[in-house]
Write a structure and sequence with these properties.
Strand 9 (91-94) and strand 10 form a beta hairpin. The chain has 495 residues and is α/β, with parallel strands linked by helices. The strands form 8 sheets. It has a 4-stranded antiparallel beta sheet, with no helix packed on it. A 4-stranded antiparallel beta sheet has the order 7-8-9-10, with no helix packed on it. Strands 11-12-13-14 form a 4-stranded antiparallel beta sheet. The two termini are 46 Å apart. The chain folds into 2 domains: 16-179, Methylamine Dehydrogenase, Chain H, CATH 2.130.10; 189-490, no CATH class. The relative contact order is 0.09.
């Protein structure tokens, strides 16, 4: 039942379904969206109905697959728009004609530009994803521009001149604006840094980051990820590159790069199993005047704790990553460095009987300080680091804990960068299927305070392309050779 009038009810219009939304066209007509019969256990199809206020029954009805009721009309009142809500299909329909999809789904609100030529919709995110703002040509059937939002949207409005779209985020307690008339950024320049192997590629990234040499150089094993993962933020903090080495011999490309860098100090991260005594001797021979320091431990977790104590003695925030596998954490180093934080490795422990024990005593002691760590950001979903680990961080340490994650390794990378970087001149892309290029590339990205996204080997996810747009990046650097990231990545082929 719908009522019209002011103050006391002056007129009632009965609607024989669940009336969820209404748009007044004139003094004589209104449009009602009954929403979806899903609300009453139906098949998902609702309808949009045009009523003449002088009549009892609708004068026109069209089916709409929608779970939402916020029907909108364009200024000339010839088209109606129905956002789908969760699970439906965004719909546009011409007056008195059948509906058609907008080529989008999941919108919770649609607004129409004052000239009636464009529609804008908001799609909320889930988990760590923050949602999107999409723009449509009214005559089109697909979004022609998409913005990734820094806050999860709940409501949408457009300015009278059509130049600005505002959205509210109930979750973040903010109202934000977009200049939707601003031209799309120019296609960024794409470059590639690679090498004959992982060691030569890392040396090439070192040359790109430090063409005039460096006072300090970090060296870690390129045959496994844990030591290099925690070494990257430390190298960024000390303004030095990260070189990767084989476990049993120092590759020629690394020896040449060490000589070129001519450092005053070399920091070897990892024990003798990761970086053998022979490699250590070769490093000393390559730079005989440099002081060689070593950060080691009984296992990868002790190495990580020792490196945090050494390189971040005053840290009050930390990124927490699993030491068991690499995918979710590859983008963590530049993000952590953006905040001046280390990356600390912990095991993925499940202790439903005693969740406070999911964090080992040495890690608890480190986080309790001094100095006390007040904020811990878990990198990866519950399958990567369990809810017991999060519980133990929250309740057995001083840290307030948050989590950045996605549906897969690529989603985790997007979530980390979306939450961290507001703008960036350069964006770095590395393979999410292997780790060496991302480990050394993280230092290159951190050098210029830029994000690093991990992607598939043959294309760039649309969400990453949206992020490049959002960040207004003018340069994209592909890390690794064509066997790791194909030529299609260089052309920013979407997927």
């Amino acid at each position: 039942m719908l009522s019209t009038g002011t103050g006391a009810v002056r007129r009632t219009q009965y609607v024989d379904d669940v009336a969820l939304g209404v748009a007044l066209l004139s003094d004589a007509q209104l449009v009602v969206n009954t929403g979806s019969s899903w609300h009453s256990g139906g098949d998902g199809w609702g309808s949009v109905r045009l009523y003449d206020l002088a009549a009892t029954y609708p004068i026109w009805t069209a089916a709409a697959y929608s779970y939402d009721g916020r029907v909108r009309a364009n200024p000339d009142q010839t088209r109606f728009y129905v956002p789908s809500g969760t699970g439906g299909v965004d719909t546009v329909m011409d007056r008195y004609s059948a509906s058609r999809p907008l080529g989008s789904s999941g919108s919770i609100e649609i607004v129409i530009s004052p000239d009636g030529l464009r529609a804008y919709s908001i799609i909320p995110g889930s988990g760590p994803n923050h949602g999107q703002l999409r723009s449509f040509r009214i005559t089109g059937d697909h979004p022609d521009r998409t913005w990734t939002l820094p806050y999860n949207p709940s409501r949408l409005a457009i300015s009278p001149d059509g130049r600005t779209v505002w959205y509210a985020s109930a979750e973040a307690h903010v109202v934000a604006r977009f200049d939707v008339t601003a031209p799309a950024p120019a296609t960024p320049v794409v470059e590639r840094i690679g090498g004959a192997d992982r060691f030569a590629a890392a040396a090439g990234m070192s040359r790109a980051a430090y063409p005039g040499g460096a006072d300090v150089v970090y060296v870690a094993s390129g045959m496994n990820f844990p030591d290099a993962l925690t070494a990257a933020p430390a190298a960024i903090a000390e303004a030095g590159p990260l070189l990767l080495t084989a476990s049993d011999q120092l590759p020629a490309s690394v020896r040449e790069e060490l000589t070129r860098l001519d450092p005053e100090r070399v920091v070897i991260v990892g024990g003798p199993v990761s970086v053998s005594p022979a490699v250590r001797l070769a490093i000393r021979a390559a730079v005989p005047l440099a002081v060689v320091e070593e950060v080691s431990g009984a296992d990868r977790y002790e190495v990580s704790r020792n490196l945090m104590r050494r390189s971040f003695p005053a840290a009050t925030s930390v990124y927490i990553a699993t030491g068991a596998n690499f995918p979710d954490a590859l983008s963590a180093a530049p993000a952590a460095s953006h905040e001046g934080s280390p990356v600390l490795l912990v095991p993925n422990t499940t202790r439903p009987d005693a969740p406070l024990e999911a964090i080992d005593a040495p890690t608890r002691d480190l986080l309790r300080g001094p100095p006390q760590v007040s904020r811990a950001t878990i990198v990866g979903g519950p399958a990567t680091l369990s809810t017991d680990v999060a519980y133990a961080l929250d309740y057995s340490t001083p840290a307030t804990t948050s989590r950045l994650w996605g549906q897969d390794r690529f989603g985790a990378s997007q979530a980390i960068n979306s939450a961290t970087f507001v703008s960036a001149d350069t964006v770095y892309l590395a393979s999410g299927l292997t780790y060496p290029d991302a480990l050394a590339g993280a230092v290159l990205a951190g050098r210029v305070d830029a994000p690093l996204y991990v992607i598939p080997s043959t294309c760039v996810p649309r969400r990453v392309l949206d992020e490049i747009d959002r960040l207004d990046a003018s340069r994209v650097v592909v890390l690794g050779g064509p066997a790791t990231l194909s030529p299609a990545v260089e052309t920013l082929t979407p997927c």
